Structure to design on (319 residues):
């Protein structure tokens, strides 16, 4: 039921206690909205949202999106899903359920409320890409039966569900394909490359490079990413995406390791470990569509973003 006397929105963020979700919530509250954060705290933590308790426009609900959710909101950002390979491979069946059942439930909710819903999809839908850089019309190169498939195929199926709810039920959907994003509030034990290397450097431990470190990724700072998600949600109903969101500067993993060693002054050694199965060799977004439709491009270069992220990890316990 639309509220009669209040123009501010009540916004649901699933996965809101996680890395990206908690930053998104901060920005939405700053803009005067009310936020309902739904999270089962699988990889997220209450620490990420501690500073919001006492804010009357913020509410936390511990809930697993694999189960139905009956709430009243004006917009939905669906971010609930473990994102680090270490975490999503820990319980792969649950990962697929979270992507697929979670999407069905959140789309069912959006259908009942007739509200906009944004899906945090991923560059992983392109798999180990045969097209470089990746454009949104590339269908991808994904192994359906490997150790990354629970995440990649789960996210691909979620995209399918979003587009079918749009075609079949006319739900206003937005699909963001997010490329590697980093920043403060990544969990110390997250396992993704930027946080791993920084934590290892600050603890004086070996830096673990998988493979020979020549594989590439393009790293987007969290503030840039959040701005793009909010702009995407604000687009006209006719714009569904998918739209790539990420930074188009591409780095080798070994270059990232060296940059972090230089910045931290750590004396850690680089050690080389086996490359995990199906680890994509290269990844860089073509962000022409985001530039054009969202009038957006990343502002924070890796150099500045790493400084902020290193400062964050210096300020928290690394145990
Ligand atoms: P994260 O692990 O920090 O956050 C995910 C959040 O979802 C956590 O708070 C976790 O507890 C919650 N969650 C997991 N399963 C849930 C469930 N069944 N029910 C309710 N909550 C659940 O990861 P992140 O980096 O913040 O990623 C957020 C979203 O963005 C994910 O959907 C991820 O796939 C997507 N994404 C992130 C990146 C990136 O580089 N950070 C890249 C591509 C896509
Ligand atoms: N759903 C929900 N909240 C709602 C409405 C629906 O969680 O407010 C869930 C419900 O469990 C359902 C799913 O979303 O299974 C899909 O809803 P839809 O209306 O598309 O399907 P149906 O109810 O017809 O199976
Ligand atoms: N990686 C690495 N050392 C680590 C963690 C990751 O060399 O300690 C590599 C990983 O093999 C991949 C890249 O860094 O090639 C990015 O990994 P991440 O888990 O951050 O994200 P992905 O893009 O693979 O999902």
């Amino acid at each position: 039921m639309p509220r009669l006397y209040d123009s501010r929105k009540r916004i649901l963020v699933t996965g809101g206690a996680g890395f990206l979700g908690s930053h998104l919530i901060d920005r939405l509250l700053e803009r005067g909205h009310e936020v309902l954060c739904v999270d089962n705290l699988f990889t997220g933590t209450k620490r990420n949202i501690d500073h919001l308790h006492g804010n009357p426009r913020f509410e936390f609900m511990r809930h697993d999106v694999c189960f139905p959710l009956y709430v009243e909101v004006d917009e939905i950002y669906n971010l609930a899903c473990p994102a680090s390979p270490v975490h999503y491979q820990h319980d792969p069946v649950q990962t697929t359920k979270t992507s697929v059942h979670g999407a069905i439930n959140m789309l069912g909710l959006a259908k009942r409320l007739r509200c906009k819903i944004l899906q945090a999809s991923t560059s992983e839908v392109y798999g180990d890409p045969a097209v470089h850089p990746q454009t949104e019309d590339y269908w991808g190169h994904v192994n359906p039966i490997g150790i990354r498939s629970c995440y990649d195929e789960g996210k691909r199926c979620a995209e399918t569900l979003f587009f079918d709810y749009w075609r079949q039920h006319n739900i206003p959907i937005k699909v963001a394909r997010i490329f590697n994003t980093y920043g403060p509030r990544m969990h110390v034990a997250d396992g993704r490359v930027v946080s791993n290397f920084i934590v290892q450097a600050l603890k004086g431990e070996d830096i673990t490079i998988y493979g020979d470190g020549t594989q590439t990724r393009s790293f987007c700072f969290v503030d840039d990413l959040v701005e793009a998600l909010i702009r995407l949600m604000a687009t006209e109903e006719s714009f569904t995406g998918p739209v790539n969101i990420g930074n188009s500067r591409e780095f080798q993993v070994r270059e990232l390791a060296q940059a972090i060693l230089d910045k931290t002054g750590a004396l850690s050694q680089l050690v080389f470990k086996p490359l995990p199965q199906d680890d994509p060799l290269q990844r860089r977004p073509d962000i022409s569509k985001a530039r054009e439709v969202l009038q957006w491009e990343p502002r924070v270069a890796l150099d500045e973003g790493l400084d902020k992220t290193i400062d964050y990890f210096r300020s928290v316990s690394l145990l």
The chain has a mean pLDDT of 96. Residues 68-70, 104-105, 108-109, 111-112 surround uridine-5'-diphosphate (ligand 2) (CB under 6 Å). The two ends are 47 Å apart (CA to CA). The longest strand covers residues 116-122.
